[in-house]
Amino acid sequence: MNGLLAVARKEARLILRSRQLMISALFVTVVFSGTAAPAVLGSGTQGSTSIDAMLFMVLTVTGIFMGYLFSGQVFLREKTGGTIETLLCTPLSLREIWAGKVAGVTFPAYLLTLVGACIITGAASAIRGEVVLPSAPAALHVLVVVPAFIAVVVGLLGFAQLLLGMRENQIINMVILFCVIFSFSLSASLAGEGFVVSWGTEGAAFAVAAALLLVVGWATRFLNRERIVTTIP
Q: What's the predicted TM-score (pTM) here?
């Protein structure tokens, strides 16, 4: 456990100290959140329902994109640079290395997602001229479900980037980037169609995220050090 936490702290520290990366990520967060707020709140739905729909859809996509952005720095760049070999020489298992990196990426990605939540609620309140707060299920989504989905995406990406070669990873990255952009556009339109966030919705979403994370964690058994080393360019 100590080794896992050490890996997580190292990765989170490197991401947070990368000024260029954090500025780029913050810019994307501001654009995603800032442009979504007036578009959805201007649809004419009630304030609480609109803010819930935005937090459910836009923040989920934002968090996933942050996870995608940071995972490349933690998994892929370390692999292309050959520095992953040093970590493979430690007594940590591949599952511990993977889990530590997932936790290290999820933390800063979730911090930026919280920044997006503040921007959305602030913009919503400014547009309506009154304080607009999410419902309890939407707050649960922000606090629990969003980081769970970030961890799922980071875990999947990390597993793929460790398992596959560079050409396969490039294809996967392009597909994921397209899906994120498409999902953001789709979520912005769906949020204005009376979407209601309920306890049942949040329970189902969290169950799906937990199940996926368990499956990916189980799949790490197929990783091996020799395979990782042979896929280093």
A: 0.87
